[in-house]
Amino acid sequence: MDGVKEKMGIGELLKSLKGEFPDLTISKIRFLESEGLLSPERTPSGYRKFSQADAQRLRFILKLQREKYLPLKVIREKINELESGKARAGDLVPGMSGSLEVGEDMAAYDDTTLLREEAPSALEVSPSFVSTLEEYGLVHARQGDDGPFFDKEDVKILRIAREFSRYGFEPRHMRMYENLTDREAMAFEQIVAPALMSKDPEVKRRALDNLMQLVNLSRELKDLLLKNRVKEHFVKAGQPVPF
Predict the structure, then answer these.
(1) Does residue 241 lie within any of the structural domains?
(2) What is the value of pTM for the model shown?
(3) 5-43: per-residue pLDDT in tens?
(4) Is residue 48 part of a domain?
(5) How far apart are CA 176 and CA 164, in angstroms?
(6) 70 and 144 co-located in one domain
(7) Does 95 lie in the same domain as 15?
């Protein structure tokens, strides 16, 4: 791409494409990265560094979204076609170069935040789906400089909720997790509350360590209980238990 540096930060990448894609935001770039569609290098301190190939790839993704109205799942398939040589970028998006460089490491990062107004389109769900999750207390938008946003934990919850819904497990069904979480949190807080009120920093630190350990034990117990509950279906079907 003309005028694009060999390596650039996320702000520079945004600036280089903003003229062509006015609605592009840093939050959107981070989200596409977390979905495995972008794979920038990372400096030792954790900063992203995008190459010309990364910029070209992002432009390709954005053009497919804007001009072809393709969801991310289909865009990922198109990129796989390019990787395998079954298609050329110019065939999929007029005006694009014939080839598209792609990185080998498409692992997602866990530090993504997402503006609330971008969440429905980015996650490919309806606005009512997001608002229902908010009403049930499963996610909470926080106020930021660019408007309300979901932090990385909420973005993960939104993704999980999206996947759940594909099996007919809707937000109203997920409400039980919020109710259970509230009860668990209250029980754990009661256990460590006296120590957290201490004026001794070391006592408070140990209390927080204990709280984290309780959370980990709870996660492990619930995982085992659920597996024990459903494994009988595999046994009855004469199939090996996959866990």
Answers:
(1) no
(2) 0.58
(3) 478 999 999 999 998 998 888 888 988 998 889 989 988
(4) yes
(5) 14
(6) no
(7) yes
